[in-house]
Structures are given as structure tokens and as C-alpha cells.
Sequence to fold (363 residues):
Amino acid sequence: MASGQDVPEEYLTGYAGILADVRTTGRRPGPEALAARRALGARAAAAGYGLRGLVGAHLAATRTALDGHGSPDPVLAAAEQAVDAFAEGWERARQLVVRREEAARREYVDDLLLGRIDPGGPAGGASRFGPAPAPAYTVAVARGPQPCEDAGPAARRVGAALAGRFGEGAALLATKDGLLVCVAPGDRDEVPVHFARQACAALQDAGLVAVGRPRPGAGGIAASYEEARDALGLADRLGFEGPVLRAADLLVFPLLTRDRAALADLVLSVLGPLRAGRGGAGPLLETLTAYFDSGCVAAESARRLRLSVRALTYRLERIHRMTGHDPGDPVQRYTLQTAAIGARLLDWPARPLPPTPDAIPGG
Fold:
């Protein structure tokens, strides 16, 4: 926005004449004169001039008109009307400018996250909205208990924290589908780290943050954004608590889901026999999950399941007998753990698995 210290004379056009006329005739400005002031106010707003500087320029012109003359009352009354009309025109036009700017920013964010534009290119708009041009970009997303909004308290707090730490335009902060989104240069890991810290605080430690990998170019922004969103989905399916997840640490999970039919075949082949247990496969699968999530430490697994160590050991032995895979054997443990992860990714046994060539009946 242009500085109010250097307002062009064109925005004062006609103002001195209004003051001179009222000084001579005592009459206040007519409708045409006030309409002209509104039009000039609108032009000043569209050009980006601040209202404070514009009002200051008018008051300076008022002082000039009063110099050496008699009673200032009629002149000041005219000045008040004229400036008020000018400011009214400025505010009306400014509201339109703000709405257009918000719409342009929203369109820019959508295009950016879909990979339609390069922020470093001529149409990128980086100088207006951010992020700073860079060879690669990292996208982080934060999800709270309630959807985040552009003008919401979380967005305002995080935006102020990022600007205060790294300056305006260093990163782009926006919302998309209720998520708080940060697009930062890929070589500045401190930006998404600070975003994650501030987002967790703004969401009162009730949120979850996911960070995509640095990716080059416009398509890289879209890829990093999708990675971050996918990480949130994995957190839901696998029970990750965060508060911060990095896509680089979760690469094995997209690999497992790339061939869902093969993954379903593994789950049914390894864990299918557990359906014959009391209560179905669910309780024994929960036992396996707790055992692996605790680093295969029996005491910690039993605590998480609220069981005695003896009861946990009995369940593990049952799993061994029913599946033919020993959780205590390193090689067989890997097969069991991969199948258990696959079951969580596919939400089995709550949902039926996709068909496989050799699917077990009833899977």
C-alpha cells in the first residue's frame, strides 16, 4: 500500500474550490461536489493509498485555506462534510478491493495446491501472497477439533507468529477444506517446524500436524500437500497420536497400500485363522497391535491392554498356534506385523477385504 506521506495532488482536486466557495457564500457543498469527493476517494483506495495520509492531506489544505481569514466555523463544517464524503468513497471502494483480493488469494491457493501454477513463475503471485520463490517447497497441514478458517483465531495467531519470526511473504498460510496449510521453501525446514509448534499451541494441543516432503516446482507443492493430507489419513487409520507426523517417516505405508489386492491376500492368509477365536479376530488383532506398538515389550503391552503379563503371553501363544507364525521369532514377527499393519490400513475385520484370487471364503 502506498505511503500516506506522499499523496498526489490529483486526489485534492476541487477541494480548495469547495473551501473557497463556502468562505465566500457561506453555503455548504452541494451534492455534485460531494459526489466528486466520493469518486476521488474510490480512486485513491483503488490506487492503494491509506486513509490516514489522505485525511492528513485534506486537513493540511484546510489549514492553508484558513490562513489569514476570519471565522473558521463555516469552512471547518464544509471540510468535515467533504472529508467525510471522501472517506466514505474510500471505504466503499476499499471493501470491494478487499473482497477481490480475498477471492484472488483463494483462487491462487487452490491453483497452488492443485499444481496449476508455479509460485516462482510470472503468474505465481509470490510477491503478493507468498511463499518466497524457491527450487522446492514443503507443505505442512494442521487439523484441529473444529475446521480452521482464514480469519479464525488459529489462522491469525499462526500467521502472526510466522510473520514475526520469518517476515512477511516467507511462507504462505491459508486454509483448505478446514485444514490450516503452510507452504514454505523446501530448504528452510525451520519454517514448517515453527508452523507445527505454533499450530499445536493455537489448537490448544488438540490438533495434529503433518509435514510433506520437499518437492520441486509447482507439481511439487501439490505432491507435498497430498503427502501431508495422506499422513493425516494414516494417523486416523493407524491410531498415530502425533502431534507432528512427517511423510518421510511414513513411506512404507503408501507402499503397502499400492497393491491392495496383494495386501488383502497377505492379511487373510496370515490373520484369517484368527476369526475362529472367541469374539472373532478383533481381540487377538488388538493384542498383536499393542504388542508391536510397544516394541514387543510384554509388560508394556499388557499395561496398554489392561491385562496381566500372563494373560498377554497366553494370547500370543494362541496367535502362534492359530496362525502358525510366532511373534517371538524375528522373521515370523515381521510377517505378522506387516499383516497387522495391513489389517489396520484396510480396516479389517470391521470391513470386508477387496477380493483376491485365492480369497478365504467369508473374508
Remarks:
- The radius of gyration is 32 Å.
- The first strand starts at residue 136 and ends at 143.
- The chain has three domains: 9-100, 126-250, 258-345.
- The beta strands are 136-143, 172-176, 179-185, 208-211, 215-216, 244-246.
